[in-house]
Specification:
6 helices; 176 residues; 0% strand; mainly alpha
């Protein structure tokens, strides 16, 4: 059975790339989480955890998670405002890609930090917060519907983004 090639210069190719990136970020966090839980449960790390240090890590994890969530809710829409000045669909979805990557990073970072703090403290509340961040990251899975709403697309752009075969023209620096 022959493999179907994905044309990276189409809307379908664009979303495939973004989904692969998003999936890789989620999978990386998930694997780190699994390894960390294994290490803590097997006693391979932290022979004795300091309760004061655990409390500090909990506050740091909570503060970082809330701050990054707040920043992602502020910066994402700010970046997307740039799409309003763009005329073509390919320019608009490039702005969407930028906003998405920034949002992914702002949620992935606290998730990794929480898991690291769990690894250092053994505090399962911190692990729970890391899992919440991971679930939030997973909920940011890119879809054409989300892009249509976020970019406030209308008319031909709204129709074209739903068609996988719609050609997009990328600048030479992004075209590989």
């Amino acid at each position: 059975m022959a493999k179907q090639q994905i044309d990276l210069n189409t809307v379908g190719g664009f979303f495939t790339q973004l989904k692969i990136l998003h999936g890789a970020l989620c999978m990386g966090v998930f694997l780190f989480l699994g390894i960390s839980v294994f290490l803590v449960n097997s006693g391979s790390v932290g022979d004795s955890f300091d309760p004061d240090q655990s409390q500090l890590f909990l506050y740091l994890a909570l503060g970082l998670s809330i701050a990054c969530l707040f920043v992602s809710r502020f910066i994402g829409p700010k970046i997307l405002e740039g799409a309003k000045t763009k005329n073509t669909l390919d320019e608009k979805i490039e702005v969407y890609r930028s906003a998405s990557i920034v949002n992914y990073a702002l949620i992935e970072g606290p998730s990794l930090a929480c898991i690291t703090f769990f690894l250092l403290s053994g505090n399962y509340y911190i692990l729970g917060l890391g899992i919440v961040n991971l679930l939030l990251l997973a909920s940011l899975h890119p879809t054409k519907t989300k892009a249509t709403i976020a970019l406030e697309l209308a008319g031909d752009h709204r129709r074209d983004i739903q068609l996988d075969s719609t050609k997009i023209i990328r600048s030479s620096t992004n075209n590989r």
